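In the current project phase, we have settled on a layout for protein records. One protein thus recorded is set out beneath this paragraph:
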Amino acid sequence: MQSYLGATFCLQPPGDTATRKGIFDSLMVGCIPVIFDEQQLEFQYELHIPSPEAISVLISKEHQDNIFEYLESIPTERVRALRDAISKMGHSLQYAKEQPLNADPDALDVAISHLLDLEESGSYMNCVRSM
């Protein structure tokens, strides 16, 4: 985690599964995750990361031979936009021990809000019945 603190980009290659704790570690310290397979963020964390393209860089297969050149070619404005998006959504990725009254929602707030939305729409019981 210490190495993420001073970095702009944090490489997050897939492992045995598409999920990777390092993606969240990098987001929590403001480092832009560099992913190599769109399944690493797509459909896995849609409650907490609704727009993966706004907070990460996807290295397509044709650029995987020259990753560092590709990252250096990303315009400064784009890097700034990625970091701003990470900063705005960072609180929703963590579970806050104590939360001020007017704070942004944390991860638990996001999950509960989603469950309430499902219940209100009638989808919650359909999900429970299908289990």
User: Anything to note?
Assistant: The beta strands are 9-12, 32-35, 57-58. The longest strand covers residues 9-12. The longest helix spans residues 107-121. Helices lie at 2-5, 21-28, 67-72, 76-89, 107-121, 123-129.
